[in-house]
Write a structure and sequence with these properties.
single chain; 368 residues; mainly alpha
Length: 368
């Protein structure tokens, strides 16, 4: 447990010293030291993470460039080409899985931390949200998709400045690591339409929810047209719902986390506190994806992963501005920050208690 607490303690010190007191001397050293610590913490882990266990098994059977025969990758077609080539290169360098972990963790830690430092003044509030809400998730669970998300963060500036060629090249790179990145090709609509929380947005959200509810009745026909792994997943979700096996507690938590809470925060800061919302269009995309969860839960939970880092950076700015005050706004900022952290951490902690994988911490170094 202690290895996980060390960066959290350092981040809390950083919040007080640099975000609340607005000092800047040596802040970057502490910031990037925490980043290095997170890379080593998760990059040198040993069989930590539910999905990591699965990928470790795949790695053992994955071919290298030396295995140059027809059908060498036939059993790994569920992996997109970009990820396949990444594994081929890593396995050519060393057959040890930890090397891939270091490569992957370095990319998915440095890119979001660079993004946070560039997009908000409240670096350590943003870093707290990153460390507790999705750093461990990127490094130990969604190993392929996290790389796609980082490609999106790298071309986010192109999206905001409407440099479409540069943005779509980044989307294509993201798509080569996980097909769910296809949702990124729709994000320009949010900037072109200047998506904001207003009457039009609320009506649009209701219409999308109704359309998805109707589409849910034709899920088998939709899956037939899609084909492949994602079609199979759609059928599984539909069957689970039809048989009454859907985990309603999980569903309620996700709806609160990805729709009700962000919508409430947006209303409070925009209409009550009269604050400008950073990256409001992406904030709204996150809410739109959350609205689809009651209908196609796993599909839209996966889609929320892409706007999530931008949404949390927006929250870092809003909460950071609040906790600088010595009034009720400061208390409100801490309460809402706590609520966000609870909704993100409740399910992982519950899973950890039933099927431990993160604790106790194990790393690849063996002193025996």
């Amino acid at each position: 447990m202690i290895p996980y607490l060390i960066p959290v303690i350092l981040i809390i010190i950083g919040i007080y010293r640099y975000d609340v007191q607005q000092r800047s001397v040596n802040s970057r050293y502490l910031y990037w030291f925490i980043g290095l610590y997170l890379i080593l913490l998760f990059g040198l882990r040993d069989n930590i993470g539910w999905d990591t266990r699965m990928y470790t098994g795949f790695w053992d059977w994955f071919p290298s460039f030396r295995d140059n025969y027809d059908g060498a990758l036939v059993h790994f077609q569920f992996m997109q080409p970009g990820f396949q080539y990444l594994w081929l290169i890593c396995k050519e360098i060393t057959p040890e899985f930890w090397f891939f972990q270091i490569v992957q963790c370095t990319f998915v830690v440095i890119v979001p931390m660079w993004f946070i430092r560039k997009r908000t003044r409240y670096h350590f509030v943003g870093l707290l949200l990153f460390a507790l809400c999705y750093c461990w998730y990127f490094c130990t669970e969604i190993l392929r998709e996290s790389i796609s998300i980082c490609f999106f963060l790298l071309v986010f500036d192109a999206l905001m400045k409407r440099k479409w060629i540069q943005y779509f090249i980044g989307c294509f790179c993201a798509f080569m690591f996980h097909f769910s990145a296809g949702i990124l090709f729709l994000f320009p609509l949010a900037t072109v339409l200047n998506l904001r929380l207003n009457r039009t947005f609320i009506i649009t959200t209701v219409c999308i929810f109704l359309a998805l509810s109707i589409a849910h009745n034709y899920v088998y026909q939709i899956s037939t047209s899609l084909g492949g792994t994602y079609a199979d997943k759609l059928v599984i979700y539909a069957t689970t719902t039809a048989l009454g096996r859907k985990n309603m507690n999980w569903m309620i938590l996700r709806v609160i986390q990805m729709f009700i809470l962000p919508f409430t925060i947006l209303v409070i800061y925009k209409f009550i506190l009269k604050r400008k919302i950073p990256y409001e269009s992406i904030f709204c995309i996150y809410i739109l994806c959350g609205a689809g969860i009651p209908v196609f839960e796993e599909v839209f939970v996966r889609f929320t992963n892409y706007p999530m880092p931008v949404y949390l950076v927006s929250l870092a700015t809003l909460f950071g501005e609040s906790i600088k005050h010595t009034s009720n706004r400061k208390t409100l900022g801490y309460i809402l920050l706590g609520m966000v952290l609870v909704t993100y951490l409740y399910n992982p902690i519950k899973l950890e208690l039933s099927d431990p994988t993160l604790i106790p911490y194990k790393w690849i170094v063996n002193f025996d």
